[in-house]
Amino acid sequence: MGQFHHDNVVVLYGVISRIDPVMIVMEYLQNGSLDRYLQKNLDKISHERLAKMSYGVAKGMKYLSSIGFVHRDLAARNILVANDETCKVADFGLAREMVENEYDVQKGGRIPVRWTAPEAISHRSFTTASDVWSYGVLLWETFSFGETPYDGWDNATIFQRLENGERLHPPRVRPLHVP
């Protein structure tokens, strides 16, 4: 994380490693995660503001891709929101440097199925393209104001339905009462 320098990527200030547990010191974003922010502000955010927030995430992801990183866990829960609604990509626990444009997961590694492209699940190989799929799911989460994708489906059902060509239903258009 220390090598990332972009307005839409969370800043790492340092690591405290002399005590257990090891801790990281990173930028504080007052509004917390995007999913919770959207749920709390359901009737207050215009579609234009949602689009602006989504664009910020896209810029952060474009930057990560340009320096050879694949995030592998892009989801609204891993985007942090500043006071001015700037969205920043965070939670790099699954992020990896790509080698020859892809990253292979060791057998048994955990995969966030609801946000992962079917081919990445099948082949356990992640690329910028699989991050683009995750970004599409993140857009769905954003415009559904933090709902859970594929709610009510277990991971096996999600994978089977995706393999059969099913996709997320369009998010419900919510009437806005924004002043």
UniProtKB/TrEMBL annotation:
<dbReference type="InterPro" id="IPR001245">
    <property type="entry name" value="Ser-Thr/Tyr_kinase_cat_dom"/>
</dbReference>
<dbReference type="GO" id="GO:0004714">
    <property type="term" value="F:transmembrane receptor protein tyrosine kinase activity"/>
</dbReference>
<dbReference type="GO" id="GO:0005524">
    <property type="term" value="F:ATP binding"/>
</dbReference>
<keyword id="KW-0829">Tyrosine-protein kinase</keyword>
<keyword id="KW-0067">ATP-binding</keyword>
<dbReference type="InterPro" id="IPR008266">
    <property type="entry name" value="Tyr_kinase_AS"/>
</dbReference>
<dbReference type="GO" id="GO:0050793">
    <property type="term" value="P:regulation of developmental process"/>
</dbReference>
<dbReference type="InterPro" id="IPR050122">
    <property type="entry name" value="RTK"/>
</dbReference>
<dbReference type="InterPro" id="IPR000719">
    <property type="entry name" value="Prot_kinase_dom"/>
</dbReference>
<keyword id="KW-0418">Kinase</keyword>
<dbReference type="GO" id="GO:0012505">
    <property type="term" value="C:endomembrane system"/>
</dbReference>
<dbReference type="InterPro" id="IPR011009">
    <property type="entry name" value="Kinase-like_dom_sf"/>
</dbReference>
<dbReference type="GO" id="GO:0005886">
    <property type="term" value="C:plasma membrane"/>
</dbReference>
<keyword id="KW-0808">Transferase</keyword>
<keyword id="KW-0472">Membrane</keyword>
<feature type="domain" description="Protein kinase">
    <location>
        <begin position="1"/>
        <end position="179"/>
    </location>
</feature>
<protein>
    <recommendedName>
        <fullName>Protein kinase domain-containing protein</fullName>
    </recommendedName>
</protein>
<dbReference type="GO" id="GO:0043235">
    <property type="term" value="C:receptor complex"/>
</dbReference>
<dbReference type="GO" id="GO:0007169">
    <property type="term" value="P:cell surface receptor protein tyrosine kinase signaling pathway"/>
</dbReference>
<dbReference type="GO" id="GO:0048468">
    <property type="term" value="P:cell development"/>
</dbReference>
<dbReference type="InterPro" id="IPR020635">
    <property type="entry name" value="Tyr_kinase_cat_dom"/>
</dbReference>
<keyword id="KW-0547">Nucleotide-binding</keyword>
<dbReference type="Pfam" id="PF07714">
    <property type="entry name" value="PK_Tyr_Ser-Thr"/>
</dbReference>
